[in-house]
Fold this protein.
Amino acid sequence: MFAVREGVRANALNVPERIEAPAGFAQITLRPVREDDQEDWNDVRWGNREWLAPWESGNPVGGKPLSFNAWVRRMREDEAAGCGVVFLIEYQMQIVGQVSLGAISYGALRSGMVGYWVSQRYAGHGFAPLAVAMLADWAFHDPTGPGLHRIEIAILPENHRSKRVVAKLGLVDEGLKRSYMYVNGRWRDHESYSLLADDCAGSVTDRLRG
């Protein structure tokens, strides 16, 4: 179910207020981050600092970190520009993680990069593959989405938990990208996985059934 916010510009991403999991799955919800999420988001994100630290990307040229409110405003700007969106993953009205679609390209490419994390407390519940599938269905097929042809997920070779996510969804391994992303103070190779809208006869979420 998609409930769309009113008042968005025609050239902006038409970001839903929420995306709800289909019947038969864990009832997670995806929704945009708001400024009043600061306390709850901080509790989850920084409470999982050690859990997420091995995969933490950064900017090699440094720069002053954004405040939470500035980060949320940056997301609104990205949505307005049509270049990216970040959704919180909620379960039983609690934030349990995050999934994002960034580096969106249009024209002849129509592609985007997906990233995600889930609280250690909820790891192994299937929330990450379900959230990615819900995001992909919106990005590929929903009339409110950006109408992408392709999504890509880049994963550190030793991140076996994340590789199980792409395996469950049937993404295609496209090989190694050298020094692809700056992680924990150095440029790291990443394995690249892709999914095309044409790969899915039905919804992406259907790939998780059974």
The longest strand covers residues 94-105. Residues 1-11 have pLDDT under 50 and may be disordered. The two ends are 21 Å apart (CA to CA). The beta strands are 2-4, 16-20, 28-32, 85-91, 94-105, 111-118, 150-155, 172-183, 186-196.
